[in-house]
């Protein structure tokens, strides 16, 4: 460890949801304190943080006070307003860095960046007008998905175009936001790699997991992924290539489609990732600790997998199943302490363990 | 689960050290919030708690406000003043209950209770005066250990009597406190069992670990303990007997000597226990979560061991080894965020993992 933050230093975390919550716990495990910045009241991360700032991302006074109070800054989501990042970065280091945010905040820039790295991505074209959409459909074909370039998550800001006449409705769904048309990828499975890179350039990846979505929301991740060993190793190499190209520091989630032509990169997330929650019960060092290690300047930890795991998200009324899950063996429950179980809201997850 | 506390309920924890810290994290993992009561400033548990009360145990106003703010009360140490317990218990349930505290707060009552349960303990006698000590030595023989009946921990309040003439110095070491003379037990190993009992009487024990002390402080715990399987099972049965007799709710640490005559109970601790820290990386559900489950009325979780573990305490300047430990494989580090690394102070621990 060349120059890690001293024990007791404060890690500022932008965003107070479940990812920030689990990052806070990991920070504490390594002897650090955390300070959450979150506009919403009573954030889940606040229950386990040393301090919380409740303010909006355009509150310069609050941002300055937050930066003053912390030693380093990280985040649990990528859609942080640029003006806030500019101010914070002038006062404290931010990991992962701005380049990773610039690339991942805009699907058009992301796809361009990844394909320039020589990686396979879905065919894509930028779309702002009906005319551009029409040309994009001619070029890419149907079916396809029209997505807002920025601020999409969990299937929000997306519209399918099964046939050319769907174009008008799809464009209306974008509500005037700059969009990207992506061609359909014919895939047999979606896998993801959670990879980490330290400040001195060490890269470590967790075993790829296989993801199943429902209604645009991740439902389960299963490790090991049921794909040939060669593809699992390809997936790790792809993740390492992206991390190195970005001179990345921290954990990244890389979603990949398994196709007859090999792996196609779906998207990258410059943060800990829902599909990496299995690491909490499958590895000695999980994705949250790996991220904190990178952010504070520690070497990465031992992310070898010691168990087969199926992670299942508990969404909305799934919370009613906690009583049953609490009694069943080999189940590790992780609840987020959210006040209200709304439909589609991630309330917790369960890691089901099998010894490997 | 008949009537567990609802998600988001607040668990009051008396004591803000590393045990309270790890209990807070476990509470959060199950969706609960924690509120620490601790006289000392900047307690380690405060970094991961939803709220902290800094006040002394004779501050009735603070105790009342604390009890008002929480749904249930537990503790990380057994030496809580009786007057504070009386007040708190009149307002909120306390788990583990008063009987466990009454028994474990006084070595004389503890030894008497355990032997009346039919369990083997070291020969013992109450001592307050030089005359009583002399009679006790006649009865029990030397060598022996004179200990204060109350408030001893990590070897504090103890004096060895190797030969009869040591008696005077040993008694002076008690500084007038009521004491107990315990005969030396000729043991080949010390093991401990971390056992839990739920509100509906379900009992579950973790695999016994083997403890090595240095200077009265726990240095390492190794699982599995290197003792015959029969003794491991005896140890679990002894722990279950004690928990059931006390109608206990929560986790208890039971320290046992391995002797030619079988297992001799050294002492019990009505709380999570340093020798149970290995469970954090050796089991799906660790001792801290098991304790919280019992306290909030959940069923106990799956405490089966999936790995061989050596837990080593990081004491005082051991903290300087963190850099080396951070880089070594199969090491799970747990640091407590304490401000100053004093000699003899527990600063963290490391769990070294071997797949079993």
From TrEMBL, chains A, B:
Write down the superkingdom of origin.
Answer: Bacteria
GO MF terms, alphabetically ordered: 5-(carboxyamino)imidazole ribonucleotide synthase activity
Q: Does the keyword Lipid biosynthesis apply?
A: no
Per its UniProt record, what InterPro entries does this chain match?
ATP-grasp, ATP-grasp_carboxylate-amine, ATP_grasp_subdomain_1, PreATP-grasp_dom_sf, PurK, PurK_C, PurT/PurK_preATP-grasp, Rudment_hybrid_motif
Keyword entries, A-Z: ATP-binding, Ligase, Nucleotide-binding, Purine biosynthesis
Q: Which PROSITE patterns match?
A: ATP_GRASP
What does this protein's UniProt record list under function?
Catalyzes the ATP-dependent conversion of 5-aminoimidazole ribonucleotide (AIR) and HCO(3)- to N5-carboxyaminoimidazole ribonucleotide (N5-CAIR). Catalyzes the ATP-dependent conversion of 5-aminoimidazole ribonucleotide (AIR) and HCO(3)(-) to N5-carboxyaminoimidazole ribonucleotide (N5-CAIR).
Identify this protein by name: N5-carboxyaminoimidazole ribonucleotide synthase
Species, as recorded = Thalassococcus lentus
Read off the lineage from the record.
Bacteria, Pseudomonadati, Pseudomonadota, Alphaproteobacteria, Rhodobacterales
């Amino acid at each position: 460890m060349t120059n890690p933050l001293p024990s007791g230093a404060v890690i500022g975390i932008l965003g107070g949801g479940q990812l920030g919550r689990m990052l806070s716990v990991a920070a504490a495990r390594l002897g650090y304190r955390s300070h959450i910045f979150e506009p919403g009241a009573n954030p889940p991360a606040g229950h386990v943080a040393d301090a919380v700032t409740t303010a909006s991302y355009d509150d310069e006074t609050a941002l300055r006070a937050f930066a003053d109070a912390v030693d380093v800054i990280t985040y649990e989501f990528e859609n942080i307003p640029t003006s806030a990042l500019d101010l914070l970065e002038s006062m404290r280091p931010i990991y992962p860095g701005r380049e990773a945010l610039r690339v991942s905040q805009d699907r058009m820039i992301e796809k361009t960046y990844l394909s320039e790295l020589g990686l396979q991505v879905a065919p894509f074209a930028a779309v702002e007008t009906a005319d551009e959409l029409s040309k994009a459909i001619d070029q890419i074909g149907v079916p396809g998905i029209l997505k807002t370039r920025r601020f999409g998550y969990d299937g929000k800001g997306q519209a399918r175009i099964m046939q050319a006449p769907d174009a008008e409705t799809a464009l209306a769904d974008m509500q005037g936001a700059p969009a990207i048309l992506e061609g359909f990828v014919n895939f047999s499975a979606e896998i993801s790699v959670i990879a980490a890179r330290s400040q001195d350039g060490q890269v470590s990846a967790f075993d790829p997991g296989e993801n199943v979505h429902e209604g645009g929301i991740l439902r389960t991740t299963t490790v090991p992924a049921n794909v040939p060993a060669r593809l699992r190793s390809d997936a790790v190499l792809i993740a390492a290539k992206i991390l190195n190209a970005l001179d990345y520091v921290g954990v990244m989630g890389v979603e990949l489609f398994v196709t007859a032509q090999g792996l196609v990169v779906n998207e990258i997330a410059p943060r800990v990732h829902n599909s990496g929650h299995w690491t909490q019960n499958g590895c000695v060092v999980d994705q949250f600790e790996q991220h904190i290690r990178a952010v504070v300047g520690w070497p990465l930890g031992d992310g070898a997998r010691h168990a087969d795991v199926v992670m299942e998200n508990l969404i909305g009324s799934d919370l009613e199943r906690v009583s049953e899950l609490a009694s069943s063996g080999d189940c590790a429950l992780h609840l987020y302490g959210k006040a209200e179980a709304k439909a589609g809201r991630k309330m917790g997850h369960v890691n089901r363990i099998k010894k490997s």
